[in-house]
From TrEMBL:
Signal sequence extent: none
A GO molecular-function descriptor: nucleic acid binding
Organism expressing this protein natively: Gordonia iterans
Protein name, per record: 16S rRNA (Guanine(966)-N(2))-methyltransferase RsmD
Xref: Gene3D superfamilies: Vaccinia Virus protein VP39
Length: 181
């Protein structure tokens, strides 16, 4: 069962949807928070969590000072779990769940984000992940950061012009890439 590692919501245990959801491990979430924390001030940051699953990463960043988060999850049951996890953390006023596909969400104009996290199902093909990455620029604030979590054995997606990978770390069967806008 995932938990919030640090900050305002530290120690809160988060529910996890069915077996089809692969929550980001505590180790990877801590690494992502450290990578971001060394490059930006999270205070007031606007976070977009695509393929939210449990919502653990967005909630971790809110716990560490991010201002708001939008969590996109297409699975209705998983979206309900994310709402429950937001309630457990008392983050109602700062977090919003969008129950739509990532492609649908990204195709509509909307707000700009300082941090975007993509954690697609490992079975999702590199072409679909590349399409999500290509649709991001219209949703990125100046000097935004994009974090992609993917299977180590999976094919590397194409990064669109304007998004530059600056760090890649491996954690067992998981690879995390941090890209700058």
């Amino acid at each position: 069962m995932p938990r919030i590692i640090a900050g305002e919501f530290r120690g809160r245990r988060l529910a996890s949807p069915a077996e089809s959801t692969r929550p980001t491990s505590d180790r990877v979430r801590e690494a992502v928070a450290s990578m971001l924390g060394s490059r930006m001030d999270l205070s007031g940051a606007r976070v977009l969590d695509l393929y939210a699953g449990t919502g653990a990463l967005a909630l971790e960043l809110l716990s560490r000072g991010a201002g708001s988060a939008v969590l996109v999850e297409s699975d209705r049951k998983a979206a309900a779990v994310v709402r429950d996890n937001i309630a457990v953390c008392g983050a109602h006023g700062r977090a919003r769940v969008v129950n739509r596909t990532v492609a649908s969400f990204l195709s509509a104009p909307g707000e700009l984000f300082d941090v975007v996290f993509l954690d697609p199902p490992y079975a999702l093909g590199a072409d679909e992940v590349s399409a999500s990455l290509a649709a991001l620029p219209g949703h990125l604030a100046d000097e935004a950061w994009v974090i992609l979590e993917r299977a180590a054995r999976g094919e590397e997606p194409e990064w669109p012009e304007g998004l530059v990978p600056v760090a890649t770390k491996s954690y067992g069967d998981t690879v995390v890439t941090l890209a700058a806008n």
